From TrEMBL:
Domain MOFRL, chain residue ranges per copy: 317-422
Keyword Kinase assigned: yes
UniProt source species: Rubrobacter radiotolerans (Arthrobacter radiotolerans)
Pfam families in the record: DUF4147 (PF13660), MOFRL (PF05161)
Taxonomic lineage of the native organism: Bacteria, Bacillati, Actinomycetota, Rubrobacteria, Rubrobacterales
Protein name, UniProt field: Glycerate kinase
Alphabetic keyword roster: Kinase, Transferase
Length: 430
């Protein structure tokens, strides 16, 4: 089953290819930039590609735009060790998920370049997951150290990504529609590769090019809900009167947002590959969220039901889902939601034969680790114990990486060049 799962994973990643996503939605007609049925005449085009898939998206855009009549320049902002953009564009690298000084410098350069755009120019924004952290743009008086403290607390709290982004938008200059506010009166065409559940445009990369329906009060509520005491400068800003641009704001009259790819395509491709390899697929959800341990418990229950009764479908079958799991950090161990899901599922089905599963973050980095996730079966827990570890203790300490590594169950892909969130597949055989 391991080989089958590896083939399914490859199919899921291929379906999220960011270059193909750009090529499907960007073109040139009669010398002008085009997308769908619309054309975007411009004397100058500034290409901003930001996120974990920024390099591949920028390369595709550069190829497509070669016949365009306008003057074209570009800036690419992506994560360390990820694919750079084409040589004709400048590439800047920064940290993710917690921002660093390089991200501050990247945001400064973006702010400067976009602020120089004029009427008759076009901002072509190619946005993928990770852009929110990579463009570290604290609104004064907030400083980087305080943004890092706030981001770390939110990530450890188990808050959902839309809740984290709600807070980010209100302590930033570019997020929550700030990017297009800076670009005005130039037009903006944004191609968005979604890594958020539901593909809400205002949540992708904290809504750089979209109206922000959330408010300062919403941001304060998130911090109260997760009992996060923000740094003083953040509290000062959230207690202030500055708001992000809302739906209906005239600044968005010259903005076109196009969803060019999402996790749904990866889930559907994984399901199709499973069918091709002889496993009847069942897509549980393309928008599964919540704590990874709860998701693992639900998966374990369905696997047992299939083995015991043939419901909701008979084996051989594949249980497929996408979305974004979270981790509530209780210990000091290293891991991420996909690794913790894998360890929790292995414990749920310890010693049960006839199943195997993987859970990966499609960008190749699960949480703050260099592993994409885990691939486990009914023997994984025993292998952990044979290596001298207590799997229950490691789970309690959020040390899922150490546990899976001991069992040879880590999935390490390296940076994949795309980012459409989590992909989970469990195979069941009789």
């Amino acid at each position: 089953m391991r080989e089958v799962l590896e083939s399914i994973l490859s199919a899921g990643l291929a379906a999220a290819d960011p270059a193909l996503a750009v090529e499907r939605h960007l073109g040139v007609r009669e010398g002008e930039v085009a997308s769908g049925d619309g054309t975007f005449p411009a004397r100058r085009v500034f290409v901003l590609s930001a996120g974990k898939a920024a390099g591949a998206m920028a390369e595709a855009a550069e190829r497509v735009l070669r016949p365009v009549r306008a003057e074209v320049e570009g800036l690419v902002v992506t994560k360390y060790d990820h694919r750079p953009g084409p040589e004709v564009y400048r590439t800047l690298f920064a940290a993710h998920p917690e921002p660093d000084e390089a991200g501050v410098e990247a945001a400064r350069r973006v702010t400067e370049a976009v602020g120089e755009l004029e009427e008759g120019d076009l901002l072509l924004a190619l946005i993928s997951g990770g852009a929110s952290a990579l463009l570290a743009d604290p609104e004064p008086p907030v400083e980087l150290a305080e943004i890092k403290e706030l981001t770390g607390a939110l990530l450890r709290s188990g808050a959902a990504i839309d809740e984290i982004n709600c807070v980010r938008k209100h302590v930033s200059t570019l997020k929550g529609g700030g990017l297009v506010r800076l670009a005005a009166p130039a037009r903006t065409l944004a191609l968005l590769l979604s890594d958020v559940v539901g593909d809400n445009l205002s949540s992708i990369a904290s809504g750089l090019t979209a109206p922000d329906p959330t408010t300062l009060e919403d941001a304060r509520d998130v911090l109260r809900r997760y009992r996060i005491e923000p740094p003083g400068s953040v509290r000062e800003l959230l207690d202030g009167a500055r708001e992000t641009p809302k739906p209906g704001d005239p600044v968005f009259e010259n903005v076109t947002n196009v969803l060019c790819g999402s996790g749904r395509a990866s889930v559907e491709a994984a399901a199709g590959k499973a069918r091709e390899l002889g496993y009847a697929p069942l897509v549980l959800s393309t928008s599964m969220t919540g704590d990874c341990r709860g998701i693992a418990s639900a998966y374990g229950a369905v696997v047992r039901e299939v083995l015991e009764s043939g419901n909701p479908l008979e084996a051989p079958c594949a249980l497929v889902s996408g979305g974004e799991a979270t981790v509530t950090v209780r210990g000091d161990g290293e891991g991420g939601p996909n690794q913790e899901f894998s360890l929790a599922l292995a414990l749920e089905l310890d010693g049960v034969p006839g199943w195997a599963a993987f859970s990966v973050d499609t960008d190749g980095n699960d949480g703050p680790t260099d592993a994409a996730g885990g691939l486990v079966d009914g023997e994984t827990v025993q292998k952990i114990r044979e290596a001298g570890h207590d799997p229950e203790d490691l789970l309690a300490e959020n040390a899922s990486k150490a546990a899976l590594e001991a069992a040879g169950a880590l999935v390490v892909t390296g940076p994949t060049g795309t980012n459409v969130n989590d992909l989970r597949v469990a195979l069941v055989e009789t």
